[in-house]
Amino acid sequence: MAKDFFKRKEKKYVLTQSQFEAFKELLEDKMERDPYYVTQNNTIYFDNDNDEMIVNSIHGTDYKCKVRARHYAGTGQTFLEIKSKIYGTVFKRRIILTLEQYNDFLETGLLPKSQIGREISYVFEDKELYPKIFIIYNRTSYKAKEEQSDLRITFDEDLRSSTHNLDITLDEEMVRYFEEPRIIMEIKTKEGMPPWLVDYISSHHIYPQSFSKYGKIFTKARLSQIRKEQHAHV
C-alpha cells in the first residue's frame, strides 16, 4: 500500500552524464532497483496570483511548503500532496486519487473525506491555489538492499516544463531546463548515509546543491521575463 506520510532528509546533487553513469554502476552493486525503477514523473505545482508558495519557498528559511499533484505516466493514479521542509527535514502528506477524482477536484474543489484531504482542501481555499506550472522528468530509482534501511537514491533526467499545457497526462509543449545533459540526484534517508556512499561522494568531489525544480524553473522564467521587458524599453 502506498504511504500517505513521509519524514526524511533529502540531499540533492547535479551530475554530468558521465558522473551519472558511473554512479549507476556503483548502485547496481551496492543497492537494488526500486520496484518502480524507471518512471516518468508528471507534476503540477499549485500557486496563487502572487506566486506566494514558490516565493516563500525560495526566500524562506526555517519553513518551506509546496502543494503539488504528481502523476506517474502510464498509471491511473495521481498523488495530491503538501510537501513541507522544516529545519532541513522533509515532510509529505498526500492522498491518492484516480485521474477522474483529480479532474473532478480541479472542477469542484471536492476531495474524498479524510484528515489529509481536509488539510489539503483548507490550504487550497486559504491560499486560493490553482495550477501554475507543469514539470516533467524521467526518474531512475534505487533502494537499499537491507530491509531495515530507508535509503533511497533517485536520478532525474530531461527536466522540462510548461505554463501553457497544464494537463497532467500530456507530455506536450514542454521547454527543457538544461542546455546540456544534467541529472539531478537525490539521496533520501532518515538514518544518514552509509560509509561506502559518503566515501564515494567525497572521493569524486560531488557536493550537495540547493535545487528546487519548481524554484529553479520559476526563477529562470522570471529572469527571462525581466530581460525581455528591459530589451523592450531600450
From TrEMBL:
A Pfam family that the UniProt record links to this protein: VTC
InterPro entries: VTC_domain, VTC_sf
Residue ranges of every copy of the VTC domain listed in the record: 7-215
Protein name: VTC domain-containing protein
